[in-house]
Amino acid sequence: ELAFLMEPDDIIAVRDRPLMLNCQVEGEGPITITWRRNGVPVAVGVRTAVLANGTLLIRNFSKRRESNETDAGEYECAAQNRYGMLISRKARVQLASLPRFLSHPQSLMVDEGGVARLSCQVRGVPEANITWQRDQQTLSTDDPRYTLLPNGVLQITGVQRSDSGFFRCVASNIANVRFSHEAQLSVTGSRIYKEPVILSGPQNLTINIHQTAILECIATGNPRPIVSWSRLDGRSIGVEGVQVLGTGNLMISDATLQHSGVYVCSANRPGSRSRRTAQGRLVVQAPPEFVQWPQSVSRPTGGSAVFSCTATGVPEPHLIWLKNGKLLIPGGNVKLTNGNT
């Protein structure tokens, strides 16, 4: 028999650096291990080698701009002995990158005591870490009036004249460092009565189980509105793993399937029934997980063999069967019942 001790993991590679993908197998020898990328065998040569323990070594991970060729893709290892072939999970290998900003912060004018919201957007692989600078000096977020959300949003509450200046985003990851355009924050002295306004409400968000969800809600008005949260279905949001960031952003840590739902942010003017609301849907997904695995069996010629396999996940996983690494299609003496047997 054959069994994997270690399968390749999804990984992010850096251009011009070595990359190793693990594949360790146990079983009766001799065992031959080969690798495929996007279904095509990986040629062993000067740049690529399969080590004695089955690990694939790419000595110089590359992407050639002129031909758009790249070592990125889906990798799988195949282990074979005299009993058959076993195919590993597909490992997604991405090239680290940090393209230019998709959006830059915009200049704005805010009343003293009001609320400022600056944002930028960049898509990096891996996800970029975003910090902010004011007048090209790193902005300290020790001041509780400053809230920096992971998606690159900077919120400033109770704006003061000393907050004026030129702001820009700094995005960085293992591939690069980039600076956004500058935006000017101007603070005016007028403080007149204003009804509550939600500057930015929660967006629809899909995350995986155990990840952290941050639902934004920032409101302005005079007097300053009070922000509160509820669920549209009336269920309690709960307190475990739930906290408020800044003056109204909802953070749910270690999310579970029960956290899925529509969340409503309300901005209320103190001492009155005047309020504004905004809502967003949170979807928590769970990756496929096997509950029941097929067991090895021995049967005489002409007998019947039954293999069962059950998996859970959100959304519900789709099951396929492989025989010696090749897709098994029902027909003839092969029957599939209930999608899993």
Automatic annotation (TrEMBL):
PROSITE patterns: IG_LIKE. GO terms for cellular component: membrane. It is found in: Membrane. Residues 1-94, 99-186, 196-283, 288-341 form the Ig-like domain. GO terms for biological process: cell-cell adhesion. It comes from the Eukaryota. Keywords: Disulfide bond, Immunoglobulin domain, Membrane, Repeat, Transmembrane, Transmembrane helix. It is a single-pass membrane protein. Belongs to the immunoglobulin superfamily. DCC family. This is Ig-like domain-containing protein. It comes from Oryzias melastigma.
